């Protein structure tokens, strides 16, 4: 029952989160810092109460290791959000971030000296082709939409290229963080909820460097049109309502993933998260009527089919359906 509830939390939380994030970004494209700060502050406060027990519980993993992980996590979060301010559409943003398998494999080969089967290399190639198709199609849309003048078109394309560079950097940094986290869990044991708390609490002082940007967007949020919250009946600026709902749905999504990691196998978690990304993409396209061509759909299918191939989900399903007698004979 808990796994089913967790899957429901993941899909409901993450898909709703995409809607509220895009509502925020469409109104103020540069609001990524205030969104990230609000998410970090809420999750850190919740973790301080229920995980750290008001600071009385000692961490199982030494703080110095969390400091390294937090530096990478903070950088990834800020860069990913800032990319939305660089002519990166939300669907491309989600597709590009789905290419984490590519970054994980590349760094796994370089750092951990891992070797993979030919089937996994083929799946990664399929993911790469899908991302390339979606990226190239989005590049054409950026140049065509900004063709009022040659200089405007070039400037828009240059910002878009910078956004692609930011996403690529964040993708590689996220993969490096995953490898570092994997080595920590092998050494100290798996403490995912503790890691969730420290990953969000320790970076909070870093937002001092972004204080002016956060304050400016808070002022802009205050000036947004009024909105009466259903049921409660309280009237607030609509941007603050979007931000509150974004933070709440992000927390629901994270809690769902956390329950899945404790109740299900890693393959199941990967499959659920992959399908969630696909559903979130469709929600974004349909709800906001984002431009999405047949080529985009082809690229998207390549990304998600390649991801499922990498997890070897079909082999696992075949094993689950095989008669118990055969499994007993193998053992």
Automatic annotation (TrEMBL):
Superkingdom per UniProt: Eukaryota
Record InterPro entries: SCL35B1-4/HUT1 (IPR013657)
Membrane topology field: Multi-pass membrane protein
UniProt main location, coarse: membrane
Segments traversing the membrane: 32-51, 63-83, 95-112, 119-138, 158-175, 196-215, 227-245, 257-288, 294-311
Subcellular location: Endomembrane system
Keyword tRNA-binding: no
UniProtKB keywords: Membrane, Sugar transport, Transmembrane, Transmembrane helix, Transport
One Gene Ontology molecular-function label: UDP-N-acetylglucosamine transmembrane transporter activity
Signal peptide positions on this chain: none
A Pfam family that the UniProt record links to this protein: UAA
Keyword Cell inner membrane found: no
GO cellular component: endoplasmic reticulum membrane; Golgi membrane
Family: Belongs to the nucleotide-sugar transporter family. SLC35B subfamily.
Protein name from the UniProt record: Solute carrier family 35 member B4
Higher taxonomy: Eukaryota, Metazoa, Chordata, Craniata, Vertebrata
């Amino acid at each position: 029952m808990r796994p089913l509830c967790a899957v429901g939390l993941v899909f409901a939380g993450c898909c709703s989160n995409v809607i509220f994030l895009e509502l925020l970004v469409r109104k103020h494209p540069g609001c990524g810092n205030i969104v990230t700060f609000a998410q970090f502050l809420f999750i850190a406060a919740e973790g301080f109460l229920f995980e750290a027990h008001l600071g009385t519980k000692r961490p199982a993993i030494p703080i110095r290791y969390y400091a390294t992980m937090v530096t990478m996590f903070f950088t990834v979060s800020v860069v990913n959000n800032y990319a939305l301010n660089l002519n990166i559409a939300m669907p491309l943003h989600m597709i590009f971030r789905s290419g984490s398998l590519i970054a994980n494999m590349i760094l796994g080969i370089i750092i951990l000296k891992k070797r993979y089967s030919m089937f996994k290399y083929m799946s990664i190639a399929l993911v790469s082709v899908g991302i390339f198709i979606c990226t190239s199609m989005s590049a054409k849309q950026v140049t065509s939409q900004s063709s009022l003048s040659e200089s405007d078109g070039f400037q828009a394309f240059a910002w878009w290229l910078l956004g692609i560079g930011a996403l690529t950097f964040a993708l590689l940094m996220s993969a490096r963080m995953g490898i570092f986290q994997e080595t920590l869990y092998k050494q100290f044991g798996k403490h995912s909820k503790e890691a969730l708390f420290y990953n969000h609490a320790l970076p909070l002082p870093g937002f001092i460097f972004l204080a002016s940007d956060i304050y400016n967007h808070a002022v802009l949020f205050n000036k947004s049109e009024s909105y009466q919250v259903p049921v409660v009946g309280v009237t607030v600026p609509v941007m603050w309502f979007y931000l509150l709902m974004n933070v709440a749905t992000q927390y629901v999504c994270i809690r769902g993933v956390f329950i899945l990691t404790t109740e299900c196998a890693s393959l199941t978690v990967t499959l659920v998260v992959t399908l969630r990304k696909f559903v979130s993409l469709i929600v974004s396209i349909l709800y906001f009527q984002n431009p999405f061509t047949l080529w985009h759909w082809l690229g998207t299918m390549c990304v998600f089919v390649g991801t499922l191939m990498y997890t070897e989900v079909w082999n696992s399903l075949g094993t689950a359906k095989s008669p118990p007698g055969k499994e007993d004979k193998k053992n």
